[in-house]
């Protein structure tokens, strides 16, 4: 008989929505967050005041998900949990932890008779609430004890056992790298559409692309949705992220695997945050020093940039008659 009681530590956007989905599907969920969570009341979902109460309310083997930011906080929670747990209990890290950290943690916990499963989770907030995608690494027999829940919380075919400890988080890391590359390509496509000589109906183009084209995707769907909601690109240019794809670029260097698209997408993301624009300012200073190039825009040079190649065309509203000697 499957033990259908689970604990979830971290009731933010992902943890709370997974807890609600699991409770709706008949699982008994005990949830804990160090901040008072704002979460709808739900049959089968109980919010407890501390980790001791969460552990005490679970049947053995206890199965506890952690959905908090990666890093030292994960180690801190595990350190707090260990004295409360018993041999055979299972901790599932559902966040974006670095796969090397997951291997280290699993090995350390194994020495104490405990299990760690690394569970890469994708699908965003909507996926957590209505059907997610899971990439799961760890001891196969241990994973088998939580597989029923994960398959119930996943969309059809949205569950994969990836192998030994660390593999789930590694596969999720690669997934996030691919995501960055796709986001960058779509973003560049939007810039090209905006730069065309005539005003294009971007919303209609995105709608068309998502019906039969080879680039149809959820990301294109989201691009259209947000473009319509914001009436264009009326958002800050600063792009925030949690930094995990930086790890992937470093791993690729160690593995000697070339990932130029993913690496460049990280560079472009970082560039979006340079509100002071130090690098281009420095470049402008040096170009002025060696070639007398002007500071700021200059119409004649702009013309040369666009028409220096045969077949070039001017940007929107630029007079192709502008020529300076």
Neighbour order of strands in the largest sheet: 3-2-1-4-5-6-7-8
Order of helices and strands: EHEEHEHEHEHEHHEHHHHHHH
Q: CATH superfamily membership of the largest domain, which one?
A: NAD(P)-binding Rossmann-like Domain
Q: Using the coordinates shown, work out and report the CATH topology of the largest domain.
A: Rossmann fold
How is the main sheet built?
8 strands, mixed
Give the N-to-C terminal Cα separation.
Answer: 85 Å
CATH architecture of the largest domain: 3-Layer(aba) Sandwich
What's the Cα radius of gyration? 25 Å
Shape: elongated
> Which stretches are poorly predicted, pLDDT < 50 over at least 5 residues?
none
- Briefly, what CATH class of the largest domain? Alpha Beta
How much of the sequence lies in strands comes to 5-15%
Describe, in plain words, how this protein is organized in 3D.
- This protein has about 325 residues and is of the alpha/beta class.
- The chain folds into three domains: about 5-165, NAD(P)-binding Rossmann-like Domain (Rossmann fold); about 170-270, Orthogonal Bundle (N-(1-d-carboxylethyl)-l-norvaline Dehydrogenase, domain 2); about 285-325, no CATH class.
- Helices cover about 50% and strands about 15% of the residues.
- The protein has helices at about 15-25, 50-55, 70-80, 100-110, 125-130, 140-145, 145-155, 165-195, 200-210, 220-230, 245-255, 260-270, 280-290, 300-305; strands at about 5-10, 30, 45, 65, 90-95, 115-120, 130-135, 155-165.
- It has an eight-stranded mixed beta sheet with strand order 3-2-1-4-5-6-7-8, sandwiched between helices.
- Helix 1 links the parallel strand 1 and strand 2.
- Helix 8 crosses helix 12.
- Keywords: Gluconate utilization, Oxidoreductase.
- It holds the Pfam family NAD_binding_2.
């Amino acid at each position: 008989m499957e033990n259908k009681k689970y604990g979830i530590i971290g009731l933010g956007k992902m943890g709370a929505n997974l807890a609600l989905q699991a409770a709706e599907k008949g699982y008994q969920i005990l949830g804990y967050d160090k901040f008072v969570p704002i979460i709808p009341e739900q049959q089968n979902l109980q919010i407890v005041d501390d980790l001791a109460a969460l552990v005490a309310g679970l049947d053995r083997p206890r199965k506890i998900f952690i959905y908090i930011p990666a890093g030292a906080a994960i180690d801190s929670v595990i350190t707090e949990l260990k004295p409360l747990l018993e041999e055979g209990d299972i901790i599932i890290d559902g966040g974006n932890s670095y796969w090397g950290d997951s291997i280290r943690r699993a090995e350390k916990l194994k020495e104490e008779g405990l299990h760690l499963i690394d569970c890469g989770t994708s699908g965003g907030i909507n996926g957590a609430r209505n059907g997610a995608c899971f990439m799961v690494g760890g001891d196969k027999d241990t994973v088998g004890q939580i597989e029923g829940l994960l398959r119930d919380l996943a969309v059809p075919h949205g569950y994969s056992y990836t192998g030994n400890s660390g593999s789930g988080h590694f596969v999720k890391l690669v997934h996030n790298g691919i995501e960055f590359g796709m986001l960058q390509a779509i973003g560049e496509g939007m810039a090209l559409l905006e730069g065309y000589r005539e005003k294009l109906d971007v919303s209609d183009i995105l709608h068309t692309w998502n019906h039969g084209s080879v680039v149809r995707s959820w990301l294109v769907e989201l691009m259209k949705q947000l473009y319509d909601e914001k009436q264009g690109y009326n958002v800050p240019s600063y792009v925030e992220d949690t930094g995990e794809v930086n790890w992937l670029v470093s791993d690729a260097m160690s593995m000697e695997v070339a990932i130029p698209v993913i690496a460049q997408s990280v560079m472009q993301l970082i560039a979006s945050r340079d509100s002071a624009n130090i690098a281009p300012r420095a470049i402008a200073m040096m170009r002025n020093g060696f070639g007398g190039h002007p500071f700021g825009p200059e119409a004649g040079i702009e013309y040369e940039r666009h028409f220096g190649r045969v077949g070039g065309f001017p940007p929107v509203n630029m007079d192709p008659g502008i020529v300076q000697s």
